[in-house]
Amino acid sequence: MSNKLPTLQQSFGALLAAPSISAIEIAQDQSNKPVLDLLCSWFGDLGFDCQQQPVPNTRDKHNFLATLGQGSGGLLLAGHTDTVPFDDGHWQVDPFKLTEKDGRWYGLGSCDMKGFFALILEALKEIPLDKLKRPLHILASADEETTMNGAKAFAANAAIKPEYAIIGEPTNLRPVYMHKGHLAQGIRIVGRSGHSSDPAKGLNSIDIMHLVIGQLLKLRQHLADNYRENAFSVPYPTMNFGHIHGGDAANRICGCCELHLDIRPLPGIALQDLELMLHQYLQPVVAQYPGTITISTLYPGNEPFADSPDSDWSKLVAAVAGNAPEVVNYATEAPYIRQLGCHTLVLGPGSIEQAHQPDEYMAENQIKPTVELLRKLIQHACISD
């Protein structure tokens, strides 16, 4: 082991102290390079081959891949380097400083999820890395909190072929083998405004939106009737109308109306297919009112994810973690990591209830179990016969 390596508190604190906020708004968005430079230094000292790869369609964001060992197979430990923005007025501690108190390690990204990389580093200190028979990969991605462009770009161009993958999102050390996807669409209708006393001289966008919503309700029922996965607490795809606005006065024909909706598809429904369904169901209204309806994506969606709870990898991880594989409702990078062809699980310390919250923390009693779990998984995937 290199004597250059920091202690766990030092590495954990250094990662928190390197701001790496992802935001759609330019003013808040930050590069993740300072985090990657730390990882490159530490894993490089352990003998890993470290690469930083620019991510297209981002603002100076990069992926980081560290590899020790040659060939295919082995294990990929993955996570994202970015955090959400924070509201300084609601934090009781400095979000960019590790604060240890009351059995908790506080800081922005402590559980979601820069702290995971510090725990990987700690696990490697007690592993005979010269005994690796199969490669160990560490992926630190960019922009998970916004576009997931980092994971998407990595999956599209990856040269590695691990047999297993763990994504260290906060799951309270419960292995997750499946989650729903997410699609957010906007529907904008532009009619013709006019005085309410003569409806024939205008084209009321609210009237057209009424027809659009009628078709969307048919699609929602179709999804509920034809797709089901009983492992989820809500076992069918959902559609939510989250925002609607139209018009400006009771005595004026509404010239514009806009609806924002959210769809959560089950595994087996690709986002591209879901968008096609949406267009097909709205086609009768589009044909009736040509040129008035625009359908757009509000922000990049996320594909659903599914692996098997009964695979040998899932059974092994469940046994080591002491928790059975389960499903969750939030989205992760797992569907893109799964594209590498590896058995993929989401498993990490901390609670999703702390993610995106003021005074985010990782419970101290999860730190040692996580380090031990990582050692055992690396031993099985990369060293054992």
UniProtKB/TrEMBL annotation:
Record flagged with keyword Amino-acid biosynthesis: yes
Peptidase M20 dimerisation domain span: 177-288
One Gene Ontology cellular component annotation held by this UniProt entry: cytoplasm
Localization per Swiss-Prot or TrEMBL: Cytoplasm
Cofactor(s) needed: Zn(2+)
Family: Belongs to the peptidase M20A family. ArgE subfamily.
HAMAP family per the UniProt record, alphabetical: ArgE (MF_01108)
Name of the protein in question: Acetylornithine deacetylase
Organism: Shewanella mangrovi
